[in-house]
Specification:
Elements (H helix, E strand, L loop, with lengths): L4 E2 L2 E2 L8 H15 L2 H14 L6 E3 L1 H5 L5 E6 L9 H15 L3 E5 L4 H13 L2 E7 H6 L1 H9 L3 E5 L6 H15 L3 E3 L10 H24 L5 E5 L4 H7 L9 E9 L16 E6 L2 E6 L23 H8 L3 E7 H15 L5 H13 L8 E6 L7 H8 L2 H17 L7
Parallel strand pairs: 4-14, 5-6, 5-8, 6-7, 9-10, 9-14, 10-13
Antiparallel strand pairs: 1-2, 3-4, 11-12
Helix pairs in contact: 2-4, 4-5, 4-9, 5-7, 9-10, 12-13
The chain binds pyridoxal-5'-phosphate.
Length: 416
């Protein structure tokens, strides 16, 4: 397992006090990894609880507009809680049971990882505490509501900027005091070893299925595979199965935000605004300024809005095996609309980055191109952002009406 290094990236830069916990976790991961019974149990849970295997859907209408080129969509949107996050969280849940721990903690920004963790904890009978910046608690009320209904305790973090990075600090503080019975469920293929390797392993189920499915449906490997990249877990999930086949082009699509020239984006590998550094327990490319301070990131998709990136992807970028591109907010919303109209699929804003890049490249790919886009999640969660971006007037009226109703019921009376 090369101590968690992928080329020069990765590692485990952790405080002394957590070292024993990481040693235990690495041992548990390695033992589960070499135990076929563990993977069988995982496949059973994914099949009977999360609906796997997810289909590989032929995008007949989009393909028809591009000659002989064929486009397929891997349907991670059909998972439990609507995204690939279930693959990781349920895998870690089984590992927690194997380690005999009773409690899980996690941090969440937009709330999707917290939601996935809360369903897993309910299902597997684990106590669950979710740390969330106070600002995000206010912004993501619907996810907070569901997490609480699922039995999780949501702790609003009031320090610092009251967003994701403060929630991470608070979750780590909890873990230092609770590691004997508690596991920290990390949401993506980042952080200190063994998290990147472990999360990538659980997500590898996506590519294993996709490879079998494309061979069964087309009798050949794809020529191009596209996936969006936040921390990198869904991209690694589908890419890993095709790494040994150099004829399969792998394209990771980052958040281009307002455009790379604007500086308002989250493109760590596709822009020149990132440099190698150590933070959050591992070494990778971080978006930073000349003084090494972390830059503010921006994306229309909350799940891609992160300063670091998986050390495994940083390595695949450096070796040239994966090509990285960025899609802008505007192009992403246009791609989302096109996918809805042509194929009847409501993709998440994150996933729509991969769709946007694939649609942009499709007309200039070879005649016999066979493309897979990983649709990492569904877009229902993004209704506020998407309706706003599209500028739907009916939606505005709906929100105003709700606000009026609440004001009328408010014991303090309607506000002027
Ligand atoms: C969280 C999320 C992502 C980003 O995470 P990765 O680890 O990069 O996969 C992408 N798509 C969806 C739908 C998400 O919820």
């Amino acid at each position: 397992m090369n101590l968690g290094y992928f080329g020069p990236f990765g590692g485990a830069f952790i405080p002394e006090i957590l070292q024993e916990t990481f040693r235990q976790l690495t041992a548990a991961f390695e033992s589960a990894h070499s135990d076929p019974a563990f993977w069988r149990e995982y496949l059973d849970l994914m099949a009977n609880y999360s609906g796997r295997p997810t289909p590989l859907t032929f995008a007949a209408n989009l393909s028809a507009a591009h000659g002989r080129r064929r486009l397929y969509i891997k349907r991670e949107d059909l998972n439990q809680t609507g995204a690939h996050k279930a693959n990781n969280v349920l895998g870690q849940g089984l590992l927690v049971k194997r380690m005999g721990k009773k409690r899980v903690i996690a941090e969440t920004g937009a709330g999707q990882h917290g939601m996935a963790t809360a369903t897993m904890a309910a299902r597997l009978g684990l106590e669950c505490v979710i740390y969330m910046g106070e600002e995000d608690v206010e912004r993501q009320r619907s996810n907070v509501f569901w997490m609480e209904q699922l039995g999780a305790t949501v702790v609003p973090v009031t320090s610092g900027s009251r967003t994701l990075k403060d929630a991470i600090n608070e979750a780590l503080r909890d873990w230092v005091g609770s590691m004997d019975d508690t596991h920290y469920v990390l949401g993506t293929a980042c952080g200190a070893h063994p998290f990147p390797a472990m999360v990538a392993w659980f997500q590898s189920i996506i590519g294993q299925e996709a490879r079998e499915q494309i061979l069964a449906q087309e009798g050949r490997l794809p020529s191009h595979v596209y996936a969006c990249v936040g921390g990198g877990s869904n991209a690694l999930g589908i890419f890993q199965a095709f790494l040994p086949d150099p004829q399969v082009a792998l394209i990771g699509v980052e958040a281009g935000g307002h455009g790379l020239a604007s500086g308002r984006h989250a493109a760590r590998l596709a822009s020149r605004d990132a440099a190698i550094g150590v933070a959050h327990g591992y070494k990778t490319f971080f978006l930073q300024d000349e003084d090494g301070q972390m830059r503010d990131t921006h994306s229309v998709a909350a799940g891609l809005d992160y300063v670091g990136v998986s050390p495994i992807l940083a390595h695949l970028h450096q070796t040239g095996r994966v090509r990285f591109e960025a899609a802008t907010d505007v192009d992403v919303v246009a791609a989302l609309k096109r996918l809805m109209r042509t194929e009847g699929l409501i993709g998440a804003l994150e996933s729509s980055h991969a769709v946007a890049q694939a649609l942009a490249e499709l007309p200039r790919l070879p005649d016999d191109a066979l493309v897979i886009v990983n649709l990492s999640g569904r877009g229902d969660k993004d209704i506020f952002t998407i309706a706003e971006a599209i500028g739907d007037p009916g939606w505005r009226r709906f929100i105003r009406r709700k606000a009026d109703l609440y004001a009328r019921d408010d014991p303090e009376g309607p506000r002027p």
